[in-house]
Design a protein that fits this description.
292 residues; alpha+beta; 5-stranded antiparallel beta sheet; 10 helices
Length: 292
């Protein structure tokens, strides 16, 4: 009987040891996969940052040995609106078009929201009429009286709940990293129309032409407008291209790079926003980085 107990105990010890060894081996394998996936994602970012690599370069989409894949998407961040630049310009006409596009039709309501946004980013404590400074919030430290550091901060501004109700996806129109000069080759038709007053039908036709026959961005059949004069003509925008060059462009000075690497069933994604367009030379400055 004692022998049976000893044999049973030995079996239990051997089984437990084997399970611990297997767990350690699986942990090491997972750790190795994570390291390899992170390394691949960083490689993708480095490739996309090279001044000679274009967004449609095949190097950015690779199936490597075994079960490894790398996909890198490069987009012009200037296809989005920098709210800080727009507010510092005090460009009320553009803000009114934006709010009208989102469903805020009443001019008095629109102006109250615009004033509250301006009061939030300006450094003084003087309230516009109607506007929103410290008394309107009743919370210590509000408003911040500095430019927005993230798009999410905009939701804290008095009156923005009305925008949230009318147009919940408003955040997708903005980036605090954009240069403030709208890249019409990258912007969505609705943003182009709201920002410039261009007819929405022409803006959609412009976008369709830019994406090329396959309708997919960053492929070799893309047909972006080569210069601002041609872009304005296609969009039906009148004016001097040289004068409008301060607010419109056909190239992004800021890019967003999303590098996704897969090793086996494990995936890692590294995203950055960098100043500098392809072909400008230099490494550029990283404005934002995140990993998941």
């Amino acid at each position: 009987m004692a022998v049976l107990w000893i044999v049973g105990l030995l079996i239990l010890l051997v089984t437990t040891t084997a399970m611990l060894v297997m767990q350690d081996a699986e942990f090491d394998a997972t750790r190795s996969q994570i390291f390899r996936a992170r390394l691949l994602a960083e490689t993708g970012v480095s490739l996309a940052m090279h001044p000679d690599v274009r967004p449609d370069d095949p190097l950015l989409h690779q199936r490597l040995d075994g079960d490894e894949e790398l996909h890198v998407e490069v987009t012009g961040e200037d296809g989005l609106i920098n709210p800080n630049i727009l507010l510092l310009r005090e460009d009320r006409d553009t803000w009114r078009r934006l709010l009208n596009f989102w469903g805020i039709k009443d001019l008095q309501t629109s102006d109250a929201i615009i004033n509250a946004l301006m009061d939030w980013v300006d450094p003084d404590v003087f309230e516009r009429s109607p506007g929103a400074e410290a008394r309107a919030y009743g919370r210590p430290g509000f408003p911040f009286n500095r430019p927005f550091r993230s798009v999410e901060e905009m939701a804290m501004v008095k009156g923005m709940h009305l925008v949230e109700e009318a147009f919940p996806s408003w955040r997708t129109w903005f980036s605090t990293h954009a240069s403030g000069v709208l890249d019409v080759n990258e912007a969505q038709p609705e943003i182009i129309s709201a920002m410039t007053g261009a007819d929405i039908t022409l803006a959609r036709q412009f976008r369709t032409r830019r994406l090329g026959p396959d309708g997919i961005p960053n492929t070799q059949d893309d047909l972006p407008a080569p210069d601002l004069g041609i872009a304005m003509s296609r969009l039906g925008i009148t004016g001097n291209p040289q004068q409008l060059g301060a607010i419109l462009s056909v190239n992004s000075a800021t890019r967003r790079i999303i590098s996704t690497a897969r090793v086996g069933d494990l995936q890692r994604q590294l995203g950055i926003v960098i100043q500098g367009a392809p072909g400008q030379g230099g490494m550029g400055a990283i404005l934002w980085m995140a990993e998941r």
